[in-house]
Specification:
With 413 residues, this protein is an alpha+beta fold. The protein folds into 4 domains: 37 residues; 45 residues; 164 residues, Ribonuclease H-like superfamily/Ribonuclease H (Nucleotidyltransferase, domain 5), CATH 3.30.420.10; 119 residues, no CATH class. It contains 14 helices and 14 strands. Strands 5-4-1-6-7 form a 5-stranded mixed beta sheet, with helices on both faces.
Length: 413
């Protein structure tokens, strides 16, 4: 067998210089049939080892019989059925070659991301527990949004995985970008579409923004692989070496780091996300003139205990509202109560659990009202008299019953 250099020389001599086959054979000391074979092929010669038999060959008919009936049967089960006693790796390699002949093919199309079309949403759970006050620390979710075309991503720590908090987080991220993607891609997060259908609160949010929410197929993380990779990027590039004193401190540090992250060169787009953002924004929908309703909303009648329980914490309300209905709104930062267009409660939202949040002014007003009530009660009780009941003499009862003059101690006869 000739090598590549000889094959190239044969073709040069014959094609370029017109040397006859007989002369080429004489010059190179190669048989004339070998020269003819070299001229007949257009590919250089390469060494191929002759295929050797495998220990699996004798088992292949049984393997094919099982795969024909059970295409997904695991290799370990096949090994048991055919009484395989040798290396399982050798058997697995052969089954991997045979199995595609009996299973259906599931091709994956190459995705082309158009400007403004989609944003991938996901929750990332950083390992460090964040101090939330009152001696408590919690592992809190971070909402991550990645624009599919430009690869610009943004993130925000939110108080919980509940629907009102997630919609508030989405609005904050979208408002920060400055336009609305035409599609929001979510996995089957329970508050968004845990049962395979978009929840009412998520659908209302999407309708206000004139966008739509698409739920990823179950157990398919590749469906939103961009934001999954950004979660890993946050884990490896943002967290190391940082300490956080509160959720607000976490979000402040994250906001300062994100411009640097979006200015890096991304290999898949051969450029910087921040440079592609203007094209993305031009294709998006404008922000709505009125922001969507986000956060928690509750209407509560205030009891004598002028506190209301909202999201696992108790917040004080102006005591003058006792017995009246008050509308409460919980944003990610504030807890606000309104009655007759008057703010009757305004507190920073507590991210800890089972705490009592009190406005000192409410305590002072309650003490004043309690003192006035007690004074009125004492004044009222001092003017109340017991009713006068007339007492009769016992002799008058004797006259009524005709017993006047009888001696009950002696014999009446």
């Amino acid at each position: 067998m000739i090598n590549v250099e000889q094959w190239a020389e044969i073709r040069r001599l014959h094609k370029a210089e017109g040397v006859p086959i007989k002369e080429i054979s004489r010059r190179l000391g190669i048989a004339r049939n070998t020269v003819r074979s070299a001229l007949a092929t257009t590919e250089p010669p390469k060494y191929q080892r002759a295929e050797r038999g495998s220990i699996v060959d004798s088992y292949e008919p049984e393997i094919r019989k099982l795969l024909r009936e059970y295409p997904r049967m695991p290799a370990t089960v096949i090994a048991e059925r055919i009484d395989w006693k040798n290396s399982i790796s050798t058997l697995k390699n052969r089954i991997a070659k045979i199995r595609p002949e009996y299973t259906s093919v599931d091709p994956v199309d190459r995705l082309v991301h158009e400007p403004g079309q989609a944003a991938q949403m996901d929750l990332w759970f950083p390992e460090p527990r964040i101090p939330v006050g009152f001696g408590q620390s919690m592992m809190l979710p971070v909402l991550v949004m990645t624009l599919s075309y430009s690869r610009v991503f943004n993130a925000l720590m939110v108080p919980s995985r509940q629907g009102p908090d997630l919609t508030a987080g989405m609005w904050s991220l979208i408002n920060n970008v400055g336009a609305v993607p035409k599609t929001l891609i979510w996995d089957r997060e329970s508050a968004i579409g845990g049962k395979g259908k978009v929840t009412e609160i998520a659908a209302a949010f999407a309708g206000t923004l004139a966008t739509r929410i698409i739920l990823a197929p179950p157990r398919d993380p590749e469906f939103k692989g961009q934001t999954e990779r950004n979660n890993q990027f946050l884990e490896t590039s943002f967290l190391p070496g940082r300490k956080f004193t509160s959720p607000q401190d976490f979000n402040q540090q994250l906001a300062g780091w994100l411009p640097q992250a979006n200015a890096r060169t991304v290999r898949s787009i051969q450029g910087r996300p921040i440079d592609r953002l203007p094209t993305d924004l031009r294709a998006m929908t404008r922000l709505p003139p009125i922001p969507p309703a986000t956060g928690f909303s509750h209407r509560v009648r205030i009891s004598r205990d002028y506190y209301v329980r909202l999201d696992r914490n108790d917040y004080s309300v102006h005591p003058s509202m006792i017995g009246r209905l008050v509308d409460f709104t919980l944003t990610m930062d504030r807890v606000i109560g309104v009655c007759d267009q008057q703010v009757v409660a305004d507190h920073p939202r507590c991210w800890a659990k089972h705490q009592v949040i009190t406005d000192p002014e409410h305590v002072q007003v309650a003490a004043t009202l309690r003192s006035a009530f007690n004074k009125i009660r004492r004044t009222t009780s001092s003017h109340v008299h017991e009713p006068v009941v007339e007492a009769r003499q016992l002799s008058e009862y004797d006259k009524i019953f005709g017993l006047d003059g009888h001696d009950f101690l002696g014999d009446p006869s």
